[in-house]
Design brief:
heterodimer, A: elongated, B: mainly alpha, Cytochrome Bc1 Complex, Chain D, domain 2, 2 domains, three-stranded mixed sheet, two-stranded antiparallel sheet
Amino acid sequence: MCLRTLIIIITNIYFLVSYVNANDDLISYDIIDYSIPYSLTNREGDIKNGREVALSRQGNCLACHKVPMHDDMFQGNIGPSLAGIGNRYTIAELRLRLVNPYVLNPDSVMPAFYKVRGLKRVDKKYTEKSILSAQDIEDVISWLATLKD
Amino acid sequence: MSYLIKFFFALILFSSLDLVAEEKSNYKNSEKPYKKSELKSGSYFSREETRAIELDEFENPGMIWVERGSELFNTHIGNNNIACSNCHNKNNNSLIGVATTYPKIYKNKLINLEQKINICLDNNMNAEPYLLESNNLLSLSSFITYISRGLPMSVSIEAEAQKYFNRGKEIYFERVGQMNLACNQCHDNLAGNYLRAEKISQGHINGFPSYLMRWENIASVHRRFQFCNNQARAEPLKIGHDDYNALQLYIAWRGNGLLLESPSVRR
């Protein structure tokens, strides 16, 4: 009996420690009603930088989404068009969709832009790194929110 | 009475085991994402200009490797001072059609065509095997695949190949890399859609070795897998890796029936 309690305590400590470690570099967040209501950072989203990140190779939104007001011949059509996305979703809903879309759709082709655990065979260049930083995500969301038509 | 019940239970148990075994051998065609009539080679999804280059043998850059391969095939290599063509020619041991059956089991191990060429060099010709992905090796495999052009892919997943097949399938559906992508997500579910400027293909390999314009070079299937892994930001495996062979077998099987088209030209 004593041994069992000991084992339970040890495993609990182990999980607690690994949980804390897992969130070392990533800012923790709460998912409420299929959204993340609170900003990941203290700074307000920078719309201009958000647009840059989204349309460059960094965010690479155009690989799968159309951005009709952007003048680029080559835009993917795997995901829905981003036209009017600011009307369809709130900032909090957009945040969850970027941070971890698997919460909404486990089979999502869109990657979680703010996740480092539970991924297999990640290239050494990218291990322990999320695709975008917390601030970049806030910036992209604030740009997406401006896409009203 | 109780013996009878036990006997019945045993009977039911055995018959159900039998059913499971049967299901296992029946997974074959029903589990393919595309029916034979729906199979589309990669050239179907490539741009018209690219397709035109592939079809014109004078313009197709892959033919340079085929020609070099043809020369090598007829050159005396190694200490036994023989050429491939001494044993393999039109009348004797012809290699026409051979490329449609690779990857294939050789001495209990799954190997691809390039590895088989190296085994032949080593065993029969007493020659130094070529480095995987080297110019000479890809030239030879391009030539040997070229002479099977127009014949249907027909790899076997029976007997010893089965465990490799199962492993290959596992890899095909496994999400990897920072992008957390599995092959099936794009090539089974999204073929025909645009990823940026490129149309997503069904992911068949009937055109390999293939000339890739982005590298201005010929590439083996494994080299292409590495590129896919890079795109998903996953750690690529080594060329010639057992897992890549297993994956190649699964993908080849999934496209069994497609006509060989190497050297194909792709972006």
